[in-house]
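>> Question from a student workshop board

For tomorrow's exercise we were told to take the sequence and the ligand below, predict the bound structure, and bring the output to class. My setup keeps failing. Could a helper post the expected result so I can at least see what it should look like? The ligand is zinc ion.
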Amino acid sequence: MKKINSIGYGGKVIFIGILFAFIIPIGIMLIPYKCIPLDVISKISFLIGILILILFTIWLMIELRQDKRINAHYEKNRDKKILIQSGQFECQACGNQHVKAEDKSCSVCGIVFK
Ligand SMILES: [Zn+2]
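>> Workshop helper replied:
Here is what the output should look like for this input. Compare the format with yours to find the bug.
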């Protein structure tokens, strides 16, 4: 599954959810004129808003779980060096790309490779 990153649109989704769930129904409530169609619109708007907020909460929980998995993976591989295109190695703790195959530790961050 592709990595979810809601930082760019999270605020907008929450705003739209709150708009439908609360702002529109409260706005309709404040209209002195009462009729059944307005009441129905208010209820539908509330349900759409709540649905958006619930679905977005689930979406955020999936994103959080992905973040935890990536962090765990990173922590597990921190003290390793991986071969990169230039034929040298990259320190997984600090990103130093000038690590040689025979290096036992990173010259930048000092981590000892396993
Ligand atoms: Zn390093």
